[in-house]
Specification:
Layout: H1 2-43, H2 61-73, H3 77-90, H4 94-102, H5 105-111, H6 118-131, H7 135-141, H8 145-154, H9 160-172, H10 186-195, H11 198-206, H12 215-232, H13 248-253, H14 257-266, H15 272-283
Helix pairs in contact: 1-3, 2-3, 3-6, 6-9, 8-9, 9-11, 10-11, 12-15, 14-15
């Protein structure tokens, strides 16, 4: 009777220590990264609450394995949420992206997408989003695309879960390898583009500025952005009116990092008109 109870106490204590360590690590990352870290995260399409500073120590294999095991072992949504936040932060480093994949962490994190807690589901999407910056990880994450599309469609309009899902789908659609898995959700994306708030519309609209997009659609999107920027700027080239940083106007007219990065890649597009419109946007 006493030994099982002692084992349970030790297990609970270990979980508490691990959770505390994860929380401290997460808080330290966020404090050290500050506002600059959040902006850098947004530039890479990552959730702002899960981006560490540019240069911080990476977690070792043992620590990451314990976090993954903890995520598997607990049913406590608070512990799951904290473990996912810490994994998401650690996934900002390429070496950790590989380690988490090799520890079968992708399937464990992906399993959290079925969790009934919206916060846990959101944090799982954020973690997969950071992990999807790795092409090998994308090969494994792609099995969750259909489920993520379903989550985006069923989630409340403009909710954090919906936005987290859109961020992940944005990263997964950088190449054309997995576009077919998202085809059935295009009507949903179009609805979000028209009905969603500015915060939700931005990741949907930016998806159009990609080398894989049909040439005619791409030219129209670029022309729209070029005309918008021209009309939003005064004679001296400065913006006539300031807009919220989450708005479409801000994203397309203020040289925001995500949009500028996509434009830079389009400079290598084989179509002359596409390149001309890109230059037009960049030089206004």
């Amino acid at each position: 009777m006493w030994e099982p109870r002692g084992a349970a106490v030790r297990a609970a204590a270990a979980a508490a220590l691990l959770l505390g360590a994860g929380a401290c690590y997460c808080l330290w990352l966020l404090a050290a990264g500050g506002r600059r870290g959040r902006r850098a995260a947004a530039a890479r399409g990552r959730p702002a609450d899960s981006s560490p500073p540019v240069s911080t120590p990476t977690m070792d294999v043992d620590a990451l394995q314990k976090l993954i095991h903890l995520l598997q072992a607990t049913d406590d949504p608070l512990i799951q949420e904290q473990a996912l936040i810490t994994l998401s932060n650690s996934a900002a480093f390429s070496v950790n992206q590989d380690i988490i994949r090799n520890l079968d962490g992708l399937s464990v994190i992906g399993g959290m997408l079925s969790n009934c807690s919206p916060k846990v589901k959101e944090k799982a999407l954020n973690a997969l989003n950071n992990l999807s910056m790795n092409s090998k990880n994308q090969e494994e994450i792609q099995v969750f695309i259909t489920q993520v599309c379903g989550t985006v469609e069923s989630a409340s309009l403009n909710s954090d879960v919906q936005l987290a899902g859109l961020r992940l789908l944005t990263n997964m659609s950088v190449t054309s390898d997995y576009h077919q898995k998202m085809v059935n959700s295009i009507p949903c994306f179009l609805r979000l583009l028209s009905e969603g708030t500015e915060r939700t519309q931005v990741p949907s609209l930016v998806l159009l500025f990609d080398n894989c997009i049909n040439r005619d659609i791409l030219v129209r999107a670029l022309t729209f952005a070029a005309n918008l920027k021209k009309n939003m700027n005064g004679e001296e080239g400065t913006m006539i009116e300031e807009y919220n940083e989450n708005s479409i106007f801000f994203s397309l007219c203020r040289d925001s990092a995500p949009f500028t990065q996509r434009l830079a890649s389009l400079l290598h597009h084989p179509d002359t008109e596409v390149k001309e419109q890109v230059v037009r946007i960049l030089t206004q």
